[in-house]
Specification:
Elements: H1 15-30, E1 32-33, H2 45-69, H3 80-94, H4 98-124, H5 126-131, H6 139-145, H7 147-161, H8 170-176, H9 180-191, H10 198-204, E2 206-207, E3 213-214, H11 218-242, E4 252-253, H12 261-272, H13 292-320
Antiparallel strand pairs: 1-4, 2-3
Length: 321
């Protein structure tokens, strides 16, 4: 059978896509990212991190819009996990002193940089590293020698902060930034957009027994795009709010009143009025919408259960007293 590519819905007709474009345009007008001042040896690594996160997220939202313009918005789901992690780290770093944050970031950065350098040398060999990439003979070996010292430095920081493993895990950072619920909801599931996942393979396959099985279901691609458009602005704004106290240090300027409730309404009302887009769609479980009367009955049943649970908790508390 010849490959048939479904005609994906034009994202420009999506109200959420248009609202995201308006949000992006206004954020670019209101949020100004300037170059940082590099004062040796007093490099503000935390400021560099926040500046980079906000800029990368702004660029990624514009990238998601560019994907939508060519009817490939479903691919923007791959951005969500990075946005969430940057939001968690920005919030956590803002809760630390600058010296604490810089010590942790420098140790982690040096660890990552040396491991990447060694991995490249191990892959292409010393000759190519020297002849084609200009690394002097012995340079990588000299960096490799420092790994044990860096690991000891990270162990010392781990003793101060209490994470498990060599470097902090995403779950641990979520706990430190009070974003555990957001992490549990989004992190693992959205990672499937950037890693191989059997679960993701199964949810991309649509069809019926005895008929065609496709992996480019138009309606599901539209759902994925809508999910990405919904999450990207939420996580971006969450990153800026989480780092609000140190934006100035990061050479990021916002207008007076930017964080006011009135401005938030102006900035996000168009998007919020569209509601949230769920991560998992009921159609993925072969469920179809019940008739309105049945749906109302389900809602009443769930509400009653919730109320009973609250009463039970109250009774237990009273009994303990």
């Amino acid at each position: 059978m010849k490959d048939q590519v479904s005609s994906v819905t034009d994202d420009s007709t999506s109200p959420r896509f248009q609202a995201l474009k308006h949000f992006s345009e206004r954020m670019r007008r209101e949020i100004h990212l300037d170059p940082l001042v590099w004062e040796e040896p007093d490099l503000d690594v935390r400021a560099l991190t926040i500046n980079n996160c906000v800029r990368r997220q702004r660029d990624a939202i514009e990238g998601a819009i560019a994907l939508g313009n060519v009817r490939q918005g479903h691919l923007a789901v791959a951005f969500v996990r990075a946005f969430l992690e940057e939001r968690m780290w920005a919030t956590f770093l803002a809760s630390m002193t600058r010296s604490e944050a810089d010590a942790l970031l420098l140790a982690m950065g040096r660890w990552d940089a040396r491991r990447a350098l060694i991995a490249q040398r191990d892959y292409i060999g010393d000759l190519d590293m020297t002849v084609h990439l200009w690394f002097p003979p012995g340079f990588v070996d000299a960096q490799a020698v420092t790994l044990d010292g860096l690991k000891a430095e990270l162990r010392q920081l781990r003793g101060r902060w209490g994470w498990q493993g060599v470097i902090p895990s995403s779950k641990w950072v979520a706990e430190r930034s009070s974003l555990v619920e957001e992490y549990e909801y989004l992190h693992s599931a959205t990672s499937r957009a950037v890693h191989f996942s059997a679960g993701e393979v199964l949810r991309r396959g649509w069809g019926a027994p005895g008929g065609a099985l496709v992996t480019d279901k138009e309606e599901f691609r539209e759902h994925l795009a809508e999910f990405a458009y919904d999450q990207l602005w939420r996580q971006h704004l969450g990153t800026i709010v989480g780092a609000a106290d140190i934006l100035g240090d990061a050479a990021i300027s916002v207008p007076d009143g930017f964080f006011s409730e009135e401005n938030r309404i102006k900035l996000t009302s168009e998007l919020k009025n569209l509601g949230r887009v769920p991560l998992v769609h009921a159609y993925e479980w072969n469920l179809t919408p019940p008739p309105p009367g049945v749906r109302m009955a389900w809602a009443a049943f769930m509400l009653a259960q919730s109320t009973d649970g609250e009463l039970d908790e109250t009774s237990d508390t009273t009994g303990d007293q």
